[in-house]
Write a structure and sequence with these properties.
The protein is α+β, with helices and mostly antiparallel strands. Helix content is 31%, strand content 30%.
C-alpha cells in the first residue's frame, strides 16, 4: 500500500551502468533516505525508461543492506511528482531529451519541478526590467563585439566574461585595465591551471572565444568584494518552497576565494565558512552595517524567487543564488541556479532535504 507521494528523480545514468552522471550518487541516496523517513516513496529514473502504455517506469533505489551497497533496478508505477536533476546543460539540450522533457512538462504541469537550467541572460533581463530587483544587479551585457567589452572595462576598470551556458566558474575571464591602458586578463577553467597575460586590444580576447565569442558570453561589471581575513568572499543563498508551497530561505553559506582564484568556487581553492561569522567580521573590518546587509539579503530572498518563477512561467522548487557584498556593504545579485549543487554544510543540507520532501508532499495534495 502506498503511504505517500511517489517521487521520481529524473536524471541520466551512464550507458550500461547504474552509477549516475556528475557524482550524484551521494545526493540521491540522501534524498531517498529522507523520503523514506518521511513516508514518501522515491526512486531515480532515466527519461528513456518510461513505458507510457503500461504506465510504468524502470527506476533505481539504493539498497543500503548490501555491503558496500548498490543500486537496484525495478519497475515502478509512473511517479506522481517528478524532480528534474538532469545534471548539466549539454545533456539537457540534447534533442531527444528535449522531446522527453517537453512531454513530461505537458503531462505533469507544476508537478514536474525544476524543469530546466536557467538562461543567465534571460534571467538578468527579467530582473533588470523589475524596478524592485534592478538595484541589486551589476551592469551586464551580451558580448556582441569588442566595443562593448572595451566600454565596460573603461567604465568599471575590471569585468568578468562569463559563458551563458556554464557553471562552477568554468571558462571565465577576468579583465582589468592597467595604469598604462593595457588589459590584464586571467582565464580560469576546470581542466587547466589559470592562464594570465596582457593585451593591448580587447579583440585579442575575443579571438580566443568559441565562434569569436558571438552571443555565447556575458560581460559583467566586477564588484570589489568585501574581504574576510584578506580574501574576497561571496554567499550562496538557498531558497526552497516549503510545505505550503511558499518560498522560504533554507540557509546561506559563505565561500572564501582561494589564493590567486578569480572566483570563490571550492574547485579553485575556495574554502567554506559560516555566513554570519563572515558577514559580521567583514562589516567590522570595512566599516559597514551588518544589519543593513541582512536587510538587503532579506529583500533578495523575498523578491527574486517569485520574480524569476513568474517570468519563466514554470514550476521551480528551489533556487540557489550567488550573492556578493562589496566593500561599502552594498549587496549584489550575480546569478541564480535552478539545479543547486549539494551544500556541504551539514545542518543546511539536512534542512534542505526535509524541505524538499515537504514540498513534494504539498504538490501531491494540491
Amino acid at each position: 500500500m502506498q503511504i505517500g507521494p511517489l517521487l521520481g528523480i529524473l536524471t541520466i545514468s551512464r550507458p550500461g551502468t547504474t552509477p549516475f552522471v556528475g557524482g550524484q550518487n551521494e545526493s540521491f541516496t540522501e534524498i531517498l533516505e529522507v523520503a523514506n523517513q518521511m513516508n514518501c516513496v522515491a526512486f531515480v529514473f532515466n527519461p528513456f525508461e518510461i513505458d507510457w502504455s503500461k504506465k510504468a517506469v524502470w527506476g533505481y533505489r539504493f539498497n543500503t543492506k548490501h555491503n558496500p551497497g548498490e543500486w537496484e533496478r525495478q519497475v515502478y508505477p509512473l511517479p506522481s511528482i517528478i524532480y528534474n536533476r538532469i545534471p548539466n546543460r549539454t545533456l539537457e539540450n540534447r534533442e531527444d531529451i528535449i522531446l522527453v522533457l517537453n512531454n513530461l512538462r505537458k503531462k505533469y504541469g507544476s508537478r514536474f519541478f525544476n524543469p530546466y537550467f536557467l538562461d543567465k541572460w534571460l534571467t538578468h533581463k527579467i530582473l533588470f526590467n523589475d524596478n524592485k530587483t534592478k538595484e541589486f544587479l551589476p551592469e551586464t551585457h551580451q558580448l556582441k563585439g569588442p566595443s562593448i567589452l572595451s566600454e565596460m572595462v573603461s567604465r568599471h576598470s575590471s569585468v568578468y566574461l562569463k559563458p551563458k551556458a556554464s557553471s562552477l566558474g568554468n571558462d571565465i575571464y577576468k579583465i582589468n585595465m592597467t595604469k598604462n591602458k593595457m588589459f590584464r586578463f586571467i582565464h580560469q577553467t576546470l581542466t587547466q591551471p589559470p592562464r594570465k597575460g596582457f593585451i593591448r586590444d580587447c579583440r585579442d580576447i575575443l579571438r580566443e572565444l568559441p565562434q569569436n565569442g558571438s552571443f555565447g558570453y556575458l560581460v559583467q561589471q566586477a564588484v570589489p568584494l568585501a574581504r574576510f581575513r584578506n580574501r574576497p568572499f561571496d554567499l550562496r543563498l538557498l531558497v526552497q518552497k516549503d510545505r505550503t508551497g511558499k518560498w522560504r530561505k533554507t540557509g546561506t553559506a559563505a565561500r572564501i576565494a582561494g589564493e590567486g582564484s578569480i572566483t570563490t568556487h571550492v574547485f579553485y581553492g575556495g574554502t567554506r565558512h559560516p555566513a554570519n561569522t563572515v558577514i559580521r567580521e567583514a562589516a567590522q573590518n570595512h566599516g559597514f552595517s551588518y544589519k543593513n546587509v541582512k536587510k538587503q539579503l532579506k529583500k533578495i530572498e523575498s523578491l527574486f524567487p517569485r520574480t524569476i518563477e513568474n517570468a519563466y512561467k514554470q514550476s521551480f522548487g528551489e533556487l540557489e543564488m550567488d550573492i556578493g557584498i562589496d566593500e561599502k556593504g552594498k549587496v549584489w545579485f550575480f546569478e541564480a541556479n535552478s539545479k543547486p549543487f549539494r551544500f556541504d554544510e551539514k545542518l543546511l543540507r539536512a534542512k534542505s532535504l526535509v524541505r524538499l520532501i515537504h514540498y513534494v508532499r504539498y504538490l501531491d495534495l494540491s
